[in-house]
Every structure is written in C-alpha cells, then in structure tokens.
Design goal:
Double Stranded RNA Binding Domain; alpha+beta; elongated; 3-stranded antiparallel beta sheet
C-alpha cells in the first residue's frame, strides 16, 4: 500500500484552470454585474503532483465528476466575493482528492470472546423469562 501524497491548495492551484461567470440566486445588482461564480478545472492525467497509481484511483472513485476531456470540475458560488469562492473551490478540490485517495483498512474478522458469548446468552435468558412472565396463568 503506497503512501498518500500530501499537497497544499496552493500547489493544486498551479495545476488548475479557473473560470469565472455570473453567479445565480439572490444578491441584487451584485449578481447582475460581477463575475463571482468560480469553476475550477483540474486535469488529473496531466498533474505532476499525483503518481500514476493515484491518478488511476481518482479516475475510478471520481468517475461521475470527471468530464469527457478528463477534467475534474468543481463549482463554488456560495459567497459574494470571487476571491472567497476561489478559496472555497480550492478547499473543496483538495478535500475531494484527499478523501478519494484515502485507503480504508480492511476489517479483520474476529471471534467473539468468551465473556461476550456468556453475556449474550445471559441477556437471551433474561429476555425469555420476561416474556414467560407475560403469559396467562392456566388454572
């Protein structure tokens, strides 16, 4: 299992194409005249930050978010400022890549301990006696 590379948002920004457009939603005149929406495009195959194994893993795990040209696209339009939206998009991209590259350890099956087996049987016995006491008494 290979070690996951750790990279900063600034390193990612160097490999991204950043496009801006007008944001949708509330905001009055600001929405109509200022390009605050940020669309961040990250081409996985041409990245120098990622190893070939990591690129393959990203293609598998993020297949639904990658377009025909091989770009991973992130959009941000939560803030009224283009700068804040750019930072938000970079943060989202970094988090998405880190999460996709995180390898989950396989769970090893273990047998129940003697105490846990004993405890389980005791609880079953108590539950059974509780239900037994609810029955009608035959005379």
């Amino acid at each position: 299992m290979a070690e996951v590379t750790i990279f900063s948002e600034k390193e990612l920004q160097k490999e991204c194409i950043i496009l801006t457009s007008r944001s949708s939603g509330a905001g009055g005149q600001n929405v109509n005249k200022v390009n605050t929406k940020v669309e961040l495009r990250f081409h996985i195959d041409s990245s120098i930050l990622l190893s070939p194994d990591e690129k393959a893993l990203l293609h598998i795990k993020l297949a639904s978010r990658i377009n025909q040209e091989g770009y991973l696209i992130i959009q941000a339009q939560a803030f009224r400022s283009q700068l804040k939206n750019r930072e938000d998009a970079l943060r989202k991209l970094a988090a998405l890549i880190r999460k996709a590259l995180l390898r989950v350890k396989k769970r090893k099956k273990t047998k129940p301990t003697a105490t846990s087996r004993q405890k389980r049987i005791e609880t079953k016995r108590l539950h059974s006696s509780k239900k037994e006491n609810r029955r009608k008494i035959e005379s």
